[in-house]
Design goal:
The protein is α+β, with helices and mostly antiparallel strands and 648 residues long. 26% of the residues lie in helices and 28% in strands. The chain has a seven-stranded mixed β-sheet with strand order 30-29-35-34-33-32-31. The chain starts with a helix and ends in a 9-residue tail after the last strand.
Length: 648
């Protein structure tokens, strides 16, 4: 949704809310006045008044397509029972609510204390798959007393255009953020001004790094937009996800893809593109084949000399946004050029050559200057062969770094990026800047999940961390079936808390091969199949009897986006075998065998927990999207996310 459309919807929503609460025309006029300041942050706090069924309407802008998780921490236990909570609305939901429909029936997510397996009783959570540009958070208070709350979001930023409903956590002068950003942009035309929650940077920063930052400020490149875009897909099964925006309503759109080397037959068979609308993207992210949900796909052009061209045309109803997935399933590295007629292509994550070349030159020079200065003022240095640092010391972020890569090279396990993020109190684990100083916990501290002494942990983060690390012992009967496992030998232990039934989407009814063969032949499991071969687990899953909770390619791509790893780096990770075995149970466990609260020990040796919510099965929070795919030696359940075993 464009900013102007979002503001229009928000204005109507505010009008409706004000009429419901019977506010005076004077107050209504004040609400319609242009906001003096804007709050933008990934963590905000506020007080919503009681006694009048109050609602706060906030914008939510995702950082990228994929899962967005919202957490609310309240000043009271059992928030739903005590009349407070929040809803997440997309554009269609917002329109329906503004036109009088019930918000309870029109949302993509709502705050639920059961969202976190071991969450505190005052913490709610909700998640949804972001496919659009803007969403709305409705915070409500139906109780008789004022309620204090803190909201945090993973993969997004909250927006309060009024500047009066919430304030950014840890920002004493957040109200002036927009004005300051505007002044900074005027002083530095080459830079794209961004307003981030200050919690994204550690409070304690060495003087040398401050001087380096002052000498060479970091510049953030904006998204690339154009009718033509060039890219390179160098690895097998690599994909680029591009936005596609129609130039006008009901636009006739044509896409033309040409690739090189043009005379390679394998490339000609296995490189092309799909076009997905918002519904198709959601279905693809849930595990369906892109070819089955695409509204258009690249087809061969019969014109002589165009053997390396793929083309598609379609009519785009309205002004909706679309996603173009350019893929190369061959083993041949290739470059491509994609040309759009009637629409604009968007790359906001620097995937393509065009976006990288269009990045402001100031950003390149600033990065180089900051890197050179920071390298001389810290003991942690970066070599071409990897990142170097000493646990207990510090590390200065270099160009191309992510927390996962830092954790991999310094601690030997990329999964520790979450602990590294928490230790430094970084608001967005996917956002670190060149020149930023990262405090490196000792191995004992990172294993214990400690926080850096210099950084103050927000209350919501503290509560969530405490809840996540607190052991809970179910007060129910334990049932312990034991099944022999070929490799390795692990007993499966199941603890049942409640009994429930569910009807997930089921797969085929007849086995067509072993687990390893089915994964190899299913295009949705291409990365999983590569991982099984890389670790040798394909041989293990070709005999014996197992249940595999199989992440789809969309799930693996989301993990890669979160960690900053490439597919090749993931396949080379030493912990990959442990991660894969964490998705496997011994024996044949059908979806109908799973009950709410059930726990089972994986062949990796650590337990997983199952939930049943709204008719769907979840394993450690990942939803089973396709259940009961039969194999000759067990069963496969496709899941929406890669689940990571505890790193320690």
């Amino acid at each position: 949704m464009t900013q102007s459309k979002w503001r229009k919807f928000l204005t109507v929503a505010l009008l409706t809310a004000l009429l419901v609460t019977a506010l005076t025309p004077v107050v209504f006029a004040a609400e319609q006045a242009a906001p003096a300041f804007q709050v933008r942050a990934s963590e905000v706090t506020g007080t919503i008044p009681g006694g009048q069924f109050a609602k706060f309407w906030l914008g939510l802008t995702p950082d990228r397509p994929g899962t967005v998780t919202v957490t609310a921490s309240w000043d009271r236990a059992n928030p739903e029972a005590n009349g407070v909570g929040f809803y997440v609305l997309n554009e269609a939901n917002l329109s329906a609510v503004v036109n009088g429909q019930r918000i309870e029936n029109n949302n993509v997510g709502m705050g639920d204390t059961r969202f976190f397996l071991r969450g505190a009783d005052n913490v709610q959570g909700a998640s949804f798959r972001a496919t659009g540009e803007a969403y709305t958070i409705v915070v409500y208070n139906d109780s008789a007393t004022d309620a204090n709350f803190t909201l945090s979001v993973d993969n997004g930023v909250f927006v309060d255009d009024s500047g009066e409903q919430v304030r950014a956590v840890g920002a004493a002068a957040e109200a002036t953020a927009t004005a300051e950003a505007t002044e900074a942009a005027a002083e530095t035309p080459a830079a794209v001004a961004t307003v981030e929650a200050p919690a994204a940077t550690p409070e304690a920063t060495p003087t040398e790094t401050e001087e380096a930052a002052a000498a060479a400020p970091v510049v953030t490149a904006g998204p690339f937009r154009g009718a033509t875009i060039r890219g390179e897909l160098g690895e097998q099964y690599e994909q680029h996800y591009l936005g596609l925006e129609p130039e006008q309503r009901d636009s006739e759109i044509t896409l033309r893809l040409s690739f090189d080397p043009r005379d390679n037959q394998e490339l000609a068979r296995r490189m092309s593109f799909w076009v997905l609308d918002e519904t198709g993207l959601r279905r693809y992210q849930a595990g369906e084949n892109a070819s089955d949900v695409a509204i258009a796909n690249g087809n061969r052009v019969n014109t002589p000399g165009d053997e390396n061209v793929r083309q598609a045309s379609f009519t785009a109803p309205g002004l909706g946004t679309y996603t173009v997935i350019v893929y190369n399933n061959s083993r041949i590295p290739a470059t491509y050029e994609l040309v759009a007629t009637g629409a604009v292509l968007v790359d906001d994550s620097l995937q393509t050559i065009s976006a990288q070349e269009a990045a402001p030159a100031a950003a390149v020079s600033a990065t180089a200057a900051t890197t050179a200065t920071a390298t001389t003022t810290t003991a942690a240095t970066t070599e071409s062969t990897g990142r170097e640092g000493e646990p207990g010391g510090t590390y200065v972020v270099q160009s191309g770094d992510t927390l996962a890569l830092i954790a991999r090279d310094i601690y030997g396990d990329f999964r520790l990026y979450e602990q590294l993020c928490s230790f430094n109190n970084i608001a967005n684990c996917n956002l670190i800047e060149v020149g930023q100083v990262i405090n490196l916990p000792t191995r004992e501290q990172i294993g214990a999940g400690a926080a850096a002494p210099a950084a103050a942990t927000p209350a919501a983060t503290t509560a969530a961390t405490t809840a996540a690390t607190t052991a809970v012992t179910p007060t129910t009967t334990a049932v312990t079936p034991t099944t022999a496992v070929t490799t390795p030998t692990v007993a499966t232990t199941t603890t049942v808390t409640t009994t429930a039934t569910t009807t997930p989407t089921t797969g085929a009814t007849t086995a067509t091969g072993t687990i390893a063969q089915i994964a190899a032949n299913n295009p949705n499991f291409s990365i999983l199949s590569q991982a099984l071969r890389a670790t040798g687990l394909d041989a293990t899953l070709s005999s014996g009897e197992y249940t595999v909770f199989a992440p789809t390619d969309a799930a693996f791509n989301e993990l890669l986006a979160q960690t900053g790893l490439t597919t090749a780096q993931l396949l080379q990770a030493g912990e990959l075998s442990q991660i894969l075995r964490y998705h496997v149970l011994s024996g044949n466990v059908a979806s109908t065998d799973i009950t709410n609260g059930m726990r089972a020990t994986t062949v990796e040796g650590k337990p997983v927990t199952f939930e049943i919510r709204d008719g769907s099965v979840y394993i450690n929070g990942a939803r089973v999207t396709v259940a009961d795919i039969p194999a000759t030696n067990g069963v496969i359940h496709a899941i929406s996310a890669v689940i990571l075993p505890p790193a320690q």
